[in-house]
């Protein structure tokens, strides 16, 4: 049994409030257990300089935590004058993941800015950010379709993320909370699409290692969890969920 | 009649949710119309270097906006690598205002960090921050009193803030929303205590000026509004409200 | 009696040397008691990006202190790599104040850079900066009129600033020197025009508060002091003083 | 056939020059095809503040590229005044990987600084850095053992890294060069120990996804390649290679 | 004849006002032609960390220009957030030069901060800074001797600086003004002591070169000029001038 | 006898490997004793903004040290977020020196970026950088001539640099190694052309001074050493050496 009485393969309660903030084109408050992240998607009608004139768009993400999202107050990155390595790693991950399921050629010369602001943290903030950001992005495109400034949903598939890990006792577990995360020997973040293809696997043994078998067990747990999470995304999106994939372009690397 | 049908001397709806975030000692989500600010108060058991060994405490504030709190997305200050002049001005104001009603000698060598994070902006974010931060600070001290790490509430009086201004038509109005604020010729932020003494007056004519009579009318509106706001703070704080002032030290500058 | 034998409503000796530095279009060394500030106004033939193409100009101010302007040497802001909150607050104040009496539509797409460099400080550096900067700006425009690159003085009214405050004994006083400033319970900076309209009121009780009556007394002292200061500006400007107001546009917020 | 005539499961030529720079305790120039990295390990007799007094050590890594290591000159990060997200991600990865095979309790309160400076880049700079840095660290500890300032080699196992990926045609390949890397749909960096346990898996589909089967194929390629690379490390280290593992502590997360 | 009618070997008019600013221990306004620099020397009763516990002192210099010291306004270095290469070069030069004539062992664990702020520039600002800073430092030590916090003047010799150069027509000239400086092919700054020993020679051909003979001619001009400048320093210092050298320690590098 | 058994007028062994790195247009690894510097020259087909439209080119240099180039590890400047004064001084020197022998009018609107990265330091890194950078620049232009994108070698003369100094015993010596440099009383860097004209003289007495005679002796040593170094450059450049000077423009400042 885990410290919050979950089974090794149980997710924490997940909950998404759409249109949480009024200004952004897409806005979601996602709660995964005690982790709460505001995910806002903003559409800007231009692309960064290195992409101009190519007729395609871009998606970029920023991630931040309120200083007191955590048990001890953290110094604000704006006060320190620079963004930490951890923050950069996370925002690069979120952007990359979202780009894998959006057909950038279909969104025109626009930038989608995704802001993930953690207001309360209890483990899994980066994976909750991806899961919530996906919904915010679909909402934003949905609003453009409603406004007739876009024809079809340029999102090719669902996208969600969760964590798996190995505890000190050797148990592989799904969806680590903060206490589990700080004790785990291995921590792995997995991002998958609705067709259960991998987008990103980041597994790390901090002062520890893991075997091939452990890897397989963790992948199994992640797949189970992500199916459930994507189900939740579909519920939250309602009608809009049906538009995901309508412009599906074949970009899976597979084939052979 | 104003753009949201209020009278010139009407406040917007105000609403405070206490214990909004679980980690901070004091946490409040304040809503003033469509302006929403998370105010968190954290107690740290040390003071900044310049105050060590004096047996007294310190209160400092930080203020920030989510990039999409506003209609157009703003660049994150952590990305720019520096805090803007506007942000600094606001956080200095919040800290100064709070210090005026807290007896720093009574809190020991502790720092109270107040974080005001605007998640949605519609004018008056700095005054909403002060009003909400005051409640968060009282909650934080209340928690210390419950935990017996403090004897008496070191807060000497209530504290709240609002804005007043002059519209282009010459009307003096109370509690400006964003649209009013951007059209106003004069904008004045006023911070007062529960005994209706002034803590801070910041009146500014941006490319305009104002007369002695206009100033008097604005002061009158502010006084009326702040009495109502402090009433709300008392309701929200419940029992704790009665402890405010229990260590009242005479520090009014008056006397003659 | 005050620490330098002045009456509560007496200004310190004020003195302005025009054309102090040879390169700037307008240059003034202002001395208010032992406070000395070099105020230089530079005209640049372009405006910042956010104003291009609107046919109007801009005024911006920068403020700095020599490291040893004060009793103890301060670290240079260029060495620290960032400008302090206090400096930003002051330079925003100076710029805003000047813009309130200059008709930006009349100066074309030009930027007026105002540099206020405090070479010796004894209290009231920000108000001395405003008073001196106003003269420097008029001189700069005067030079343009002489050079026929401008037709009329775009300055609509005189502008000056001073401080008032409340001492620990409850006395309201005019034009605080450094020693008074560091002991005062309330410190208020007031900027007014030649027609005795307010441009800016910034009153602050640092760990103290002030009453309605005290506010009224301070306003009275400021009004008296500013009339005298504007008289000095007129003397220093000589002939040019008569051109101030020649393009007066009605922008007072008043009316009702 | 690949662009440089390798088989899909062939490594590029690997080559390590020990004692390349004279000052560092451990120094290696590693060449993997046309990628050349100077890996220096420096021992400092203190640990960062957050670790003091715990009697254990720390390993940290920094990574950089000469501006003209690449085909087009890059702006120096010292000129930009900040380290890019990519650099931070890489140096965090290198440090984490090395810490997984060093028993930090056995090195005393010392910090091992590992500097990986890419002087010529042709793909795989981060994995070459890990492979070379491992050798530099063993050399540095070896020097301490020779100098009798350390008793036993605190390195518990070998450590090496390589990349695998999926080309546009669906081929899974080992050890991508720059041209392959820029065309690949999936890019995965894998770090393993001498006992073929995983330390880190970072697989990324940039605007693409990959299946479970593709993942398995890539893992197989990586395992094969890493066995060969570790053989090279053993040759280069000679006698010292036998000391790796002499203090082996059981920290594999496995067990069940 | 030169553009200001001087002979090739004539200095511009030099003028030093002592005690120009009231707070610093030593303060001089030096004017060399139209170049005006405020040189302030501050004594701090501690040394930088790397010198603690050695019983000797340190001298360091900072150099800055008002934005409008020059014909076109320069961006403030505090706004840019960093000090330029030119500024760093100059402040390192000033500090090094002063240290060559001060016996750091005789000043105890104190730091002398020398601030050279150029308020008006017309060429030769760095050499004027050295000449003025020397006088400010002697004044500061003089004040300490008067206050009995120091026994003897720790300054071993006089110190002054000037520039020489080669014009396009091949003329070698002394003490270049701004116009000459911007046209010169060779620019050389020379710092010498009262005993006519060299402290620093910095000769530069910007897109040009110079011969051995030209070098000799320039050295001759500099020597002549520096003798005259040191005469002025002696006049300005009056009585104090006699104390310079009273602790003369032999540190000339010569001997053979 | 010197600490490495050289005569006072002997250079250390010098060695240049051309085409050391494959990407840059010109690349040299220079070794001067134990000092090793990678000098890369990159040609970019544009000039900095301040030079656009003038039809001429620019040469700029950057200098850096690997953290462990020295006996003790230095903090990376990219980590510190700023470039030190020493680094700026050196890169300004290198750029200036190279510009003195390149006819910028002949290279079109191109920028030559010269990167000098010290991988191992033992004194004289800045002079080795200049000597090596010169060769890299000639190689880069040579490649352009081969590719017919340039007609004639725009380099007007050879260029090399070395150091001279005065030891504590009064000996003047040539080409100081690190140990000598840290003990020397006077340190002088001299840059000369193939026609033995001076480009730069930077002589510094750190807490010491030097006489006219010592200066003459040092100049003599430098001249001897630089003749030998330029001989080496000619050998290394082979055929290309003959093209140096083919567009020689008379820019020596001499003549009278």
Provide a compact summary of the structure.
With 256 residues, chain A is of the alpha+beta class. Chain A has helices at residues 77-80, 85-99, 125-146, 178-183, 212-237, and strands at residues 14-18, 26-32, 35-44, 58-65, 111-120, 159-166, 172-174, 186-193, 198-205.
Describe it for me?
Six copies of one chain form a homohexamer. In chain A, a hairpin with a 5-residue loop joins strand 6 (159-166) and strand 7 (172-174). The longest helix of chain A has 26 residues, at 212-237. In chain A, helix 2 crosses helix 3 and helix 3 packs parallel to helix 5 (212-237). Chain A has one domain: Ribosomal Protein S5, domain 2 (2-Layer Sandwich), CATH 3.30.230.70. In chain A, 29% of the residues lie in helices and 26% in strands. Chain A starts with 13 loop residues before the first strand and ends in a 19-residue tail after the last helix. The first copy, chain A, contains five helices and nine strands, in the order ββββααβαββαββα. In chain A, the strands form two sheets. Chain A has a five-stranded mixed sheet with strand order 1-2-3-5-4. The first copy, chain A, has a four-stranded antiparallel sheet with strand order 7-6-8-9, with helices on both faces. The first copy, chain A, is an alpha+beta fold. The relative contact order of chain A is 0.17. Chains in contact: A-B, A-D, B-C, C-E, D-F, E-F. Chains A and D meet through helix 2, strand 8, strand 9 and helix 5 of A and helix 2, strand 8, strand 9 and helix 5 of D. Strand 9 (198-205) of chain B pairs antiparallel with strand 9 (198-205) of chain C, so a sheet runs across the interface.
